[in-house]
Design goal:
Length: 254
């Protein structure tokens, strides 16, 4: 998956939302390649478990309890990674949630604000904290978690989430283009349905309906997303920035 053997050995990745799902799977994939991985999550126990498994899988793991909706905690997380590992090469903004399903007319202020705080402000704060060190180093890669929802709009179930992920995608384009000539690449991943705890908010009927729209006939696996994150961060992918990658089993835009 990489252009050069041992490319990730000794390099440092910061992964938010690393206690479960895609963030957790990605942390172990980077560990497999010999990277240092700061595993951050609001779930302190889960972050610690992920860091332990990074250590067991060939990397160097560090756990941090971080609320990415706090600018101060996001900055402290980046500083801790720099202090422990000497710098940051990769940032994967994986933390996110729709919190609950909702019809459009039932979206209240609390749900809208929580969704944008986590999914948009969290990406903003972590990215702003990471970029100065990347600029100093003259290189760095940022991968943001978007979603197929930003193209579909989430009708009937999650317009709040789709809107937030649309903002993430727009931010990705802007950051990618602003820093493209300064050694920093910024991209997003837009998955279709993935079999992670995120889907716990979906009823069995909704999960079945979503699966039926996917030509492959199944949800994706978190490891399949993690491998794409690794590829995007690698030296096999140096001409890609300011764009999103769709991983959806062929599900298209229904």
């Amino acid at each position: 998956m990489v252009g050069s053997p041992k490319y990730f050995q000794g390099k440092t990745a910061v992964i938010t939302g690393a206690a479960s799902g895609i963030g957790y799977a990605t942390a172990l994939i980077f560990a497999r390649e010999g990277a240092n991985v700061l595993c951050s999550d609001l779930n302190e126990e889960g972050a610690a478990r992920a860091a332990d498994e990074v250590n067991e899988s060939g990397g160097r793991g560090l756990a941090a309890r971080v609320d990415v909706t706090s600018r101060e905690q996001a900055a402290d997380m980046i500083q801790r990674a720099k202090s422990e590992f000497g710098g940051i090469d990769f940032l994967f903004n994986s933390a996110g949630s729709a919190f609950r399903r909702s019809k459009f007319l039932e979206i209240d202020d609390d749900l809208w604000e929580k969704t944008f705080d986590l999914n948009v402000k969290g990406v903003l704060y972590c990215t702003q904290a990471a970029i100065p060190g990347m600029l100093e180093a003259g290189k760095g890669v940022i991968v943001n978690m978007a979603s197929m929802a930003h193209r579909r709009g989430g009708p009937g179930i999650s317009v709040h989430y789709a809107s937030a992920k649309g903002a993430v995608q727009t931010m990705t384009l802007g950051v990618g283009r602003e820093f493209a000539n300064r050694g920093i690449r910024c991209m997003s991943i837009s998955p279709g349905p993935i079999d992670t705890p995120f889907q716990d908010i979906s009823s069995a009927e909704l999960r079945q309906t979503m699966a039926e729209t996917i030509p492959m006939g199944r949800f994706g696996h978190p490891e399949e997303i993690g491998e794409m994150v690794l590829f995007l961060c690698s030296d096999a992918c140096e001409y890609l920035t300011a764009d999103t990658v769709y991983i959806n089993g062929g599900s298209g835009w229904r």
